[in-house]
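User: Quick sanity check before I run a bigger batch. Here is a single chain. Can you write out its predicted 3D structure?
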Amino acid sequence: MEFKRVVITGVGTVNPLGNSVEEYWENLKNGVSGAGPITHFDPALHATKFACELKNFDPLQYMEKKEIRKYDLYTQYAFASTAQAIEDCGLDLEKVNGDRVGVIWGAGIGGLETFHKEVRAYKEERPRFSPFFIPKMIANIAGGLVSIKYGFRGPNYTTVSACASASHALIDALNNIRLGKADIILTGGSEAGVNEAGIAGFNSMRAISTRNDDPKTASRPFDKDRDGFVMGEGSAAFIVEEYEHAKARGAKIYAELAGGGMSADAYHMTAPDPEGRGAGLVMKWALEDAGLTTKDVDYINVHGTSTPLGDIAEPKAIGKLFGEDAYNLSISATKSMTGHLLGAAGAVEGLASVLAMQEGIVPPTINHFTPDPEIDEKLDFTFNKAKKRDINVAISNTFGFGGHNATVVFKKL
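Assistant: Done. Predicted structure follows.
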């Protein structure tokens, strides 16, 4: 059968660099760090005392006051980004056939803060749980509540694959529309891991930075002195639409969602394959799915977390797959600015890829001070300063605990 073409017609985000797409992009291209001291709770007892939090987020812009207590922060963030995307795409909710609109969302953990607070309250304050405990906590509830709000009755589920969750959601949205299962899918991801359980848990793994004296330079992908990722939070959403459907309603089109790849490292619970085999496979399969070759790719938004092992494996994979074409690429790790949004990373970084393509600007990898001899620095990592470049094809990589890998391919129309 002939696959239908799929395009992006609406976007929205709330993340550590801004509460709108415009604010996010302005700070991203200017190399602004979203890191600072934790304000969500008192971090005095924790080894890490900083994170990339949202600033001045007001949930009342997107929901009634009575609803807020029913929703975990990760759901509130989802409501914000999806509302922006729906407004951006110009969809007439009175006319759209809700049976043909789906919601496929990504979340790595879901309501971690709700879980932590309820268990603590049960132990210290009251011998019962809130009736909202389960529906606030479960990882699929954000997508379910979004569909209820807008009357979208098409395919509806949540992808949970750690840090690859939102990228898997985008790929599933692509494939559902390709196969004619829906005309429009609202997709993306959200996460709210900046809480005591999240920080303490990752501290115990020694996965996050403890550079408390200088939070803004703590996320330093590919730098020799990197000491772990910086926790981020937030959400990004896309309206993904069948091409002819979008043209018929006169929708603006940001980019074509051209392909996606999925693979597994089959190596370790939390560490990447040191040779980047799974990372190489997922990029290879994503390009094949899009009908492209390595020569076609202009930009890679890499997973680039600022961890000792991951930042070595991914460039190895790029070098092996792309060969000499690797030195013609522009690469950047935008986690150096946003922090790591866990299950929402693929959405926020996919949005960065689309905006880079639209604007012809490669956002930087900030906080690079000392070269790492184990990393091929002949690759163009766009260190410390954005640069202009025509981008016709961009790919976004996300790799999650458990060895889950996902790569999304975006193409300029």
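The domain at 7-255 is CATH 3.40.47.10 (Peroxisomal Thiolase; Chain A, domain 1).

User: Great, the batch can go ahead then.
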